[in-house]
Amino acid sequence: MVRFSDPRFARKSGVQDMPEQMTTARALKAAVSHGNGLLEKLLDALHPDVTERLLSQATLHDVAVGDTLIERGARSEDVGYVLDGTLAMVQVLEDGKKHIVGLLVPTDIYGRLFDGPSNYRIEALSAARILSFPRAFFEQVLRDNPEAERLFLVHLLDEVDAAREWLLLISGRRAVNRVASFLSILQRRTRFKRTGDHAVVHVPLSRKDLAQYLGARPETLSRAFHELEDMGVLRIVDPHHFRIIDEQALIAASGDDLTLQDG
Amino acid sequence: MVRFSDPRFARKSGVQDMPEQMTTARALKAAVSHGNGLLEKLLDALHPDVTERLLSQATLHDVAVGDTLIERGARSEDVGYVLDGTLAMVQVLEDGKKHIVGLLVPTDIYGRLFDGPSNYRIEALSAARILSFPRAFFEQVLRDNPEAERLFLVHLLDEVDAAREWLLLISGRRAVNRVASFLSILQRRTRFKRTGDHAVVHVPLSRKDLAQYLGARPETLSRAFHELEDMGVLRIVDPHHFRIIDEQALIAASGDDLTLQDG
DNA sequence: CGCTGTCGTTGACAACGATCAATGTCCGCT
DNA sequence: AGCGGACATTGATCGTTGTCAACGACAGCG
């Protein structure tokens, strides 16, 4: 695993020299509070002093595309909170094939607490900004604050549900459905730009990665996107940006009107 | 939701009059200790007195095929521990279609703690035996015993991983692969009979339900099962029982040698 | 006992997606 | 600028699966 403090990592990935470490807790708290993510809830539940101490241990990191944050099988020393960008949880098979099993977008937390090594590699799909906490300290805070720990637990319950619901979405349906589902979920999970009055969704995956994620081939995805464009549902701005023209039609195209909750 | 104490439920489902409620805690503990499930770990972590009190509140229930234990959207008053049989977590869509999103086999726990209503219906796929705890009391025990709560939390982490790994298995592969995966996972998760020296796996789902679960059609499954039989991997005893002839070949047929951990 | 509905299976066919191949574009590199 | 490589797209073909239909086995029921 390549740790943040590893100079090779800094060189390769363009991690900056982190003057941000000196940033005040207040400023960090402001950076965190842009959503209703888990971390924000945790901080709200904690005594202000604890919040202060936790944030004083946090460091900001800028990571570049392709950086590996946690290697599969490694025991991560950090817990990360995504501020900006997109990370992926990647399952690496013996034959070297990669398979994306989950996405991490702003307000998501990664890093396995109280437990063994990570089962996945965490990899940056786009340039990203991460708030990183020492795992041991984070765990201790949870241990000392049952309220917070319970919030974490409920969050995990939600994640289990989200994983199952995702399963439902990608299983046994047409490629167009899955692509439409993916786009409308992504639209809800990420902050997106609005131009005119149509949302532009940013897809930070290459066609190949997205294909792995959705259980299809790049060619099939290409056809699905263009089918949706022909239907007037969206417009392909570039291979990674899609302007949603008809949000209702997009939802309809995802199959039933089955929709995912956040998570 | 139909609660256990509801006489309509008892009539419809054949729930017995529960003389088992009087069973001693010791006997219950013996019933629980047939695996290394979560509940067993929890009980081990608790002070014997607490264990005793918790088990004194537990009740045994026999449920019949098709019984609904928790309705979607309902707040369950119980936490259930599966002793025998198979339950399913069922997502019910607006158009009435059902979709199985997860199976519960012996040593699994269901019932949402610390949180809102269940997102799924819990339904018995076969006759089953359930150990049921009052949810509020169970929660209180966890609240009072951080050690136990942490066990529960780690268990949830595993569930999230299992859900993601399952996703990996069913996404984008041939029907035969999915069927083979399903069988070998089921073989490991359930206690199965051995006849001669070949394991006989019991599949408690109808072809239709299994099709929904695996993202395929009943016809396709039928062909997949018979393809595996032609390959000499297994023998179809009856539509719900399969004798595994060549375990290695089964694993090979599940695609890569990708195998699931328990969960 | 025969009727009816459900279930598992099989066959024929069509639709969908995977595969193979070719093209164009963009980007980094020298 | 020129080159090579990665990426997205498109077309053609083939394999797998969904769909439609029919059949036998079986259980529940009048």
Compact description:
With 263 residues, chain A is an alpha+beta fold.
Q: Count the helices of chain A. How many?
A: 10
Chain pair sharing the greatest interface: A-B, 42 and 44 residues
SSE sequence of chain A, one letter per element: HHHHEEEEEEEEHHHEEHHEEH
Briefly note the structural class of the backbone of chain A.
alpha+beta
Describe the protein's architecture and organization.
The structure is a homodimer of 263-residue chains. Chain A is 42% helix and 22% strand. In chain A, strand 9 and strand 10 form a beta hairpin. Chain A is globular, with a radius of gyration of 19 Å. The first copy, chain A, is built from 10 helices and 12 strands. Chain A folds into 2 domains: 7-148, Sandwich (Jelly Rolls); 172-253, Orthogonal Bundle (Arc Repressor Mutant, subunit A). The first copy, chain A, is α+β, with helices and mostly antiparallel strands. Chain A has helices at residues 7-13, 25-32, 38-45, 48-56, 135-144, 146-170, 175-189, 207-214, 218-230, 247-253; strands at residues 59-63, 68-70, 78-84, 87-92, 98-104, 109-110, 121-124, 128-134, 193-195, 198-202, 234-238, 241-244. In chain A, the strands form 3 sheets. The first copy, chain A, has a 4-stranded antiparallel sheet. At the A-B interface, strand 5 and helix 6 of A face strand 5 and helix 6 of B. The first copy, chain A, binds a DNA duplex (30 and 30 nucleotides) through residues 174-175, 206-208, 216-223, 226, 239.
